[in-house]
Design brief:
Rossmann fold, 9 helices, UspA, UspA domain-containing protein, Universal_stress_UspA, about 280 residues, ten-stranded mixed β-sheet, Rossmann-like_a/b/a_fold, alpha/beta
């Protein structure tokens, strides 16, 4: 892991996301870059330099004044954050600009808040996060509250483990190695999706071997729904981060449909690491 992107408006959620990104950067020697997007007017068109096109004589001065104000506020915000190497403020469309930045700047991990906005027209909301989580080509680590005091000892990986696949778990492995954390594999059994303990554990063992994992514990939890199972298991056990795949295929997509992964990101209190499989 070399580069972490922190999309923020420099307010409370940004503080929460920074503390977690900072914790990871210290352990992995990664750099942190900050991106703030001032929301453009609906239907805005940009020239090749990224400036709002003024074809109809519109007055965009308010947006440029807001951009300058955000830049000044962001400069103050990073004064005591020496591991932030670069900041970028632009006028644009939040989801599109974050995803474009990820693709164009060799970002390895995105760390961001899941809801709430201060000072601008709702910079990061659950809907923005949900879209980014489901479209990002790199893992996204989302959090809802202050985790500055969190020690990363236990990471939970959720799956149905019905299809054993080799996945790109590079960032997950980086976190496990950097924090010397233990990995927990969890299958939530529901009335509609039930599997025997013997079969699940057998598939978990194959999954561990295929993906080169160690320091792993297996768990099977019975509940009425997947979301409730994850929530209750996390409350009953010491879980620091929950990892979940998005855009799944084969056996995975029965478990991780868009609504399930987005619900987990938006409602689970623990930080959630999503990755594309």
């Amino acid at each position: 892991m070399k580069k972490i992107l922190l999309p923020t408006d420099g307010t409370e959620l940004g503080d929460y996301a920074y503390e977690l990104a900072h914790k990871i950067a210290q352990k992995t020697k990664a750099s942190i870059e900050v991106l703030t997007v001032v929301p453009a007017p609906a239907g805005a068109i940009f020239d090749p330099d990224g400036r709002l096109r003024n074809d109809e004589g519109e007055d965009f001065s308010d947006f440029y004044e807001e951009k300058v104000a955000v830049e000044e506020r962001l400069e103050r915000w990073i004064e005591d954050k020496p591991d932030i190497r670069y900041t970028n403020v632009r006028i644009g469309h939040i989801e599109e600009d974050i995803l474009q930045y990820v693709k164009n700047n060799q970002v390895d991990l995105v760390v961001m808040g899941t809801k709430g906005a201060h000072g601008m027209n709702e910079f990061i909301r659950g809907s923005h996060t949900g879209h980014i989580v489901n479209a990002s080509p790199v893992p996204v680590l989302c959090l809802k509250c202050d985790r500055s005091g969190m020690l990363i000892h236990d990471i939970l990986l959720l799956s149905d483990f019905e299809e054993v696949e080799q996945l790109d778990l590079g960032i997950l492995k980086d976190l496990l190695y950097a924090f010397d954390a233990e990995l927990h594999l969890l299958r939530v059994n529901t009335p509609k999706h039930f599997a025997t303990t013997r079969q699940v554990k057998r598939n978990m063992e194959r999954f561990v071997e295929l993906n080169g994992l160690d320091k792993v514990r297996f768990h099977i939890y019975d509940e009425e729904s997947i979301e409730q199972g994850i929530t209750n298991f996390s409350l009953e056990n010491r879980v620091d981060i929950v990892a979940i795949g998005t855009h799944q295929r084969k056996g995975f997509d029965r478990l991780f449909k868009h609504s399930v992964s987005e619900d987990i990101v938006n409602h689970l209190m623990q930080p959630v690491l999503t990755f594309r499989v």
